Amino acid sequence: MIIQLNGLKETIPQGLNISKLIKFFDEGDPHLIVEQNSRYIYPKNYDTCMVMENDMIEFINPNLGG
Predict the structure, then answer these.
(1) What is the DSSP string of the chain?
(2) Of residues 1, 43, 48, the one with CA closest to residue 59
(3) Interval 24-61: pLDDT, tens
């Protein structure tokens, strides 16, 4: 299945939710922000929010600190 992740086309397996997508791309930032099709996804919804063909996903790593 093809999605757009941070502006790049990526091929991923079907049936991934946001939690599994984060693991698939080995994204380890505990403060990660995720948007799906320009909508913020709350971390509590990562397990129930499914990734679909042609979704536009943004992984945002906030720069915390001074």
Answers:
(1) -EEEETTEEEE--TT-BHHHHHHHTT---TT-EEEETTEEE-GGGTTT-B--TT-EEEEE------
(2) 43
(3) 999 989 999 999 999 999 999 999 999 999 999 999 99
Query: CB pairs under 8 A, 24+ apart, for 19-25?
Result: 19/46, 19/47, 21/51, 21/57, 22/46, 22/59, 25/59
Residue with tokens 């991934």: 16
Domains and CATH numbers, the chain: 2-60 (3.10.20.30)
Query: What pLDDT shows up at residue 63?
Result: 76
Distance (Å, whole) CA 64 – CA 47: 25
Q: What is the pTM of this model?
A: 0.91
